[in-house]
Design goal:
Layout: H1 3-13, H2 23-31, E1 41-45, H3 50-63, E2 68-71, E3 83-85, E4 88-89, H4 92-111, H5 119-133, E5 138-142, E6 160-163, H6 171-174, H7 178-185, E7 194-198, H8 202-215, E8 219-222, E9 228-233, E10 236-241, E11 244-248, H9 255-272, H10 279-288, E12 296-300, E13 303-307, H11 312-325, E14 331-336, H12 343-350, E15 354-360, H13 370-380, E16 385-388, H14 391-401, E17 407-412, H15 417-423
Parallel strand pairs: 1-5, 1-6, 2-5, 6-7, 7-8, 13-17, 14-15, 14-17, 15-16
Antiparallel strand pairs: 2-3, 3-4, 9-10, 10-11, 12-13
Helix pairs in contact: 1-4, 2-5, 3-9, 3-10, 4-5, 7-8, 11-12, 12-13
């Protein structure tokens, strides 16, 4: 099969939906002779910060000289972005070749009456197979949803199970409280691994700590509360933490300190396990790592940033960072959200910082319409708001209205980031 045929097959397979559980991915990886077995992994779960933390750890490992796989979710432009080796996105030919083997295995399962794997399960299996064939020394593996029942959790105990910020999201699947969600995400913790936990709410920390105790897993805490900010700008931050002075990141936002500290603690844990990751590799990894759509600046005149804040926790972090980057300023917000997200919570965190809102409809079936979002905005704030059918139309209107000192920030659904970046000619990371 070529890349187009693979894409068409996956589009049809989306009809099977997303179903939590490990039985289908187990059957599929068995059919593929379990390419994930024996591979060293760093497994990352959490509500916010997974992608950036994964990028930092991946770049640290690369800087240390290891051939590093990186599996992330979701993607911005195409599902192939989920699979990278040493920073390089898997080629269309490489995806087609590997996915063909996965599809053929899936068809064999279906032929004998087995349950068809979901699209995410097939892509995850493809990732395992691709990393195996690329002879990766180690792979950084980001959970898709939750942790305990996520397809990525079919792996043997990882070297490190990393938990980033945990909050209320996907409550219909993961639980109604932070403790319940933390327990689901901590399902990636297995006997034989080490656990790294970002500093966060007592409810989440107590849950993870109890699970580590029950599994006899050592827990290493990553406390960004003791970090000291030196400087913050649109192209990165500089901070001190523990024995490190002047750590610099290539991504901005106060929340990146938490992600960078968690990645650094993970590097320390890996070093204890025999992986040669010295301080120079840590510093180089923090400086080089990038994630598209994470408080990313796309234009200077006027300043235009985009971010994937798609839940109240992420929106609060975005608002805090914007207020530090641009003290005292009100912003032109281009906002597009999904109907199944807590969009009222997102608006509550960001509207106090808004000068004007341009509500847009993200290009996905689950989107909340721009007109409904405008009405929600009007219900809780007197900030002027307009509605536009597409993110591009909203961006155009915001740019036309912006004065020379205005700052525009587009945020919300990750599904709109590709179009936003393309509007400014950004078609690659």
């Amino acid at each position: 099969m070529n890349y187009g045929q693979v894409s068409e097959y996956l589009s049809r397979a989306e009809a099977f939906g997303s179903i939590p559980g490990l039985s289908r991915i187990a059957r599929l990886t068995d059919e593929l002779e379990n390419p994930q077995r024996g591979m060293p992994f760093v497994h990352i779960a959490g509500t916010n910060g997974k992608g950036s933390t994964a990028a930092y750890i991946s770049e640290m490992l690369r800087a240390a000289g290891y051939r590093t796989g990186l599996y992330t979710s979701p993607y911005i432009r195409g599902f192939g972005e989920r699979v990278r080796v040493n920073g390089e996105v898997a080629s269309e030919d490489g995806i087609a070749e590997t996915m063909t083997d996965v599809i053929e295995a899936s068809e064999r399962i279906i032929k004998v009456g087995g349950m068809p794997p979901t699209v995410f399960e097939m892509i995850t299996a493809m990732g395992f197979l691709y990393f195996r064939r690329q002879n990766c020394d180690i792979t950084v593996l980001e959970v898709g949803l939750g942790g305990r029942l996520d397809a990525t959790n079919i792996i043997d105990p990882p070297l490190a199970a990393v938990l980033t910020r945990i909050g209320l999201d996907h409550t219909e699947l993961l639980g109604q409280t932070v403790a319940e969600i933390a327990a689901e995400k901590a399902g990636i913790i297995k006997p034989g691994c080490a656990a790294v936990l970002m500093r966060q709410s007592a409810e989440a920390e107590d849950t993870v700590s109890a699970i580590c105790g029950a599994e006899n897993v050592p827990l290493f805490r990553a406390d960004a509360g003791v970090a000291r900010l030196r400087s913050i700008a649109t192209d990165g931050i500089c901070f001190d933490w523990e024995n490190y002075e002047g750590l610099e990141t290539g991504m901005t936002g106060l929340f990146q300190i938490q992600n960078a500290v968690t990645a650094t603690r993970t590097a320390q844990v890996l070093e204890k396990l025999g992986w040669a990751i010295d301080e120079s590799a840590v510093r180089a990894g923090l400086k080089k790592a990038r994630c598209a759509g994470r408080l990313e600046i796309l234009s200077e005149k006027p300043i235009f940033l985009t971010d994937g804040a798609h839940n109240p926790q992420g929106a609060a972090a975005l608002a805090e960072s914007l207020s530090v980057l641009f003290p005292g300023k009100k912003f032109l917000f281009v906002i597009g959200v999904l109907a199944d997200k807590d969009y009222r919570g997102i608006l509550a965190e960001t509207l106090p910082f808004a000068k004007r809102v341009y509500a847009v409809t993200p290009p996905v079936k689950r989107a909340l319409s721009a007109f409904a979002l405008k009405e929600e905005t009007a219900a809780i704030s007197a900030v002027p708001a307009e509605a536009f059918d597409t993110p591009e139309a909203g961006i155009f209107a915001a740019l036309n209205a912006a004065g020379k000192d205005d700052v525009i920030c587009a945020f919300g659904s990750l599904y709109q980031i590709a179009g936003i970046r393309a509007f400014f000619g950004k078609t690659a990371d």
